[in-house]
Design goal:
Strand content: under 5%
Largest sheet: none
Number of helices: 8
Structural class: mainly alpha
Distance between the termini: 41 Å
Radius of gyration: 16 Å
Length: about 170
């Protein structure tokens, strides 16, 4: 099943505020990735759950440094790195992820690489996003991609101007 609203509703109910937990949220993302349904957006739920867990930790534990350490450990842990490697390899290999979908996955990948602190990888991923990339994600998404904003994030992080941002 690749009906995104069902995944969103189920994952929302896994949040701690609804008697779920961060671990359950992370495991749901890993289960979605384990489907290996790279002909759909289902494996990207792994990344969506990473964002959601981060949001929950920040929201629920604003002043709790231990919770933030757990989040950091999760995002930088060997299992997460392995799962992200599987995700990106599957996306690269499946014909579904061409054109606009490839651009969307590349933007998501760069965002993940920035979030986990791998600026060199984020820079390389960003360079592979075509100049004529759609300003919007695939039809199932409403979020947009602003090349200048993305370049600005990279500039802020490593203080190197991306010459493509001025085009």
């Amino acid at each position: 099943m690749a009906f995104q609203p069902a995944y969103r509703t189920y994952s929302w109910n896994l949040r701690p505020r609804w008697h779920g937990g961060w671990k359950e949220m992370m495991e749901f993302g890993a289960e979605c990735l384990a489907t290996s349904r790279f002909d759909t957006v289902v494996p990207l739920e792994f990344v969506e759950r990473m964002w959601a867990v981060g949001d929950e930790i920040i929201e629920q534990t604003k002043d709790d440094p231990e919770a933030k350490k757990k989040l950091w450990a999760y995002w930088h842990g060997a299992r997460t790195k392995r799962l992200l490697g599987e995700l990106w390899a599957g996306v690269e290999a499946d014909p579904f992820w061409q054109g606009e979908y490839r651009d969307y996955a590349s933007v998501m990948r760069a965002r993940v690489e920035i979030r986990v602190g791998d600026m060199n990888a984020a820079r390389e991923t960003y360079k592979r996003i075509p100049q004529d990339a759609s300003a919007y994600g695939p039809p199932h998404k409403t979020s947009g991609f602003d090349r200048n904003a993305a370049a600005g994030v990279l500039r802020e992080i490593d203080h190197d101007a991306d010459p493509r941002a001025e085009q």
